[in-house]
């Protein structure tokens, strides 16, 4: 079992990947698909990210990550994404 996230704790590789995808405009479902997890897993990951960064929301976490250099604009996929349709 993983230990709970605490403010100031370094971000994991998976958390950084989720932040990059969110900053690129991907939905939770799209992030889950790209990272090979579930939407619930993505929501848990963002809860941990907001704790570690001291953010108030997912968007705030992206802004903090950009400001602190955890992710860079050059690393983002800013091309338009096709919305996934429900099966």
TrEMBL record:
**TM segments?**
none
- Per the UniProt record, one Pfam family is GerE
Superkingdom classification of source? Bacteria
What is the organism field in this record? Answer: Streptomyces ziwulingensis
Which residue intervals define the domain HTH luxR-type in the entry?
4-69
Protein's UniProt name? HTH luxR-type domain-containing protein
Q: Which SMART domains match?
A: HTH_LUXR
